[in-house]
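Ops channel
N.P.: pipeline sanity check, posting one input/output pair.
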């Protein structure tokens, strides 16, 4: 009971002793908002935002609160000092590649902090030459699929592989343009497991996405 009375008194003192015409200040006598706290705040329960609104200012002056799925801790994300934003879409233009393809290109993107997805690609020859071909092996069954394109993790960074299949090679040094998306891991609330579907040799079907697994 004593603790409740003491806490009530502290809250009352904060709201009455620091109250200004512009709002209420805790640790400041000149609040600029309805409630301004100058200092650290510790919250042991839940935090709800009824109407958080939209930030219309410069992103360099703003922070985002995100929950890190690795340790379940609410952390501050600063866009201005981050290497990458929450969601990035970019094109990798890689030229003068060996005719055998690209086996291990290190993007330098941390696999601890980010996911990487390759959305598509364009292949050209030297100086954007569209007349580029693959050598044809004797067995025609090896023609398709022609390429393998994937992002994978090695030594904690994302790597890119783009290679012809079945021992085939390009007839000239290729250039590739890869459409790549990078996502901050702590900005994704859920990551679903692999979705497996047996089509039973049919060309069309229906399915339903599973409910997301909460972290």
């Amino acid at each position: 009971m004593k603790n409740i009375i003491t806490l009530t008194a502290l809250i009352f003192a904060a709201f009455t002793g620091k109250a200004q015409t512009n709002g209420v200040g805790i640790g400041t006598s000149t609040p600029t908002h309805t409630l301004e706290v100058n200092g650290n705040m510790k919250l042991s329960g839940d935090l709800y935002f009824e109407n958080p609104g939209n930030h219309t200012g410069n992103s360099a002056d703003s922070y985002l609160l995100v929950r890190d799925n690795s340790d379940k801790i609410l952390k501050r994300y600063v866009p201005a000092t981050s290497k990458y934003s929450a969601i990035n879409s970019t094109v990798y233009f890689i030229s003068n590649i060996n005719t055998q393809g690209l086996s291990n290109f290190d993007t330098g993107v941390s696999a601890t902090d980010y996911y990487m997805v390759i959305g598509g690609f364009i292949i050209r020859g030297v100086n954007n030459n569209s007349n580029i071909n693959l050598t044809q092996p004797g067995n025609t069954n090896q023609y398709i699929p022609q390429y393998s394109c994937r992002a994978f993790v090695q030594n904690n960074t994302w790597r890119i592989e783009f290679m012809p299949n079945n021992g085939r090679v390009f007839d000239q040094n290729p250039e590739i343009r890869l459409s790549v998306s990078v996502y901050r891991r702590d900005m994704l609330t859920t990551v679903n497991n692999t979705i497996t579907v047996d089509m039973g040799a049919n060309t069309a079907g229906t399915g339903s996405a599973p409910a997301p697994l909460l972290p």
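N.P.: looks fine end to end. Confidence is low (pLDDT under 50) at residues 5-10.
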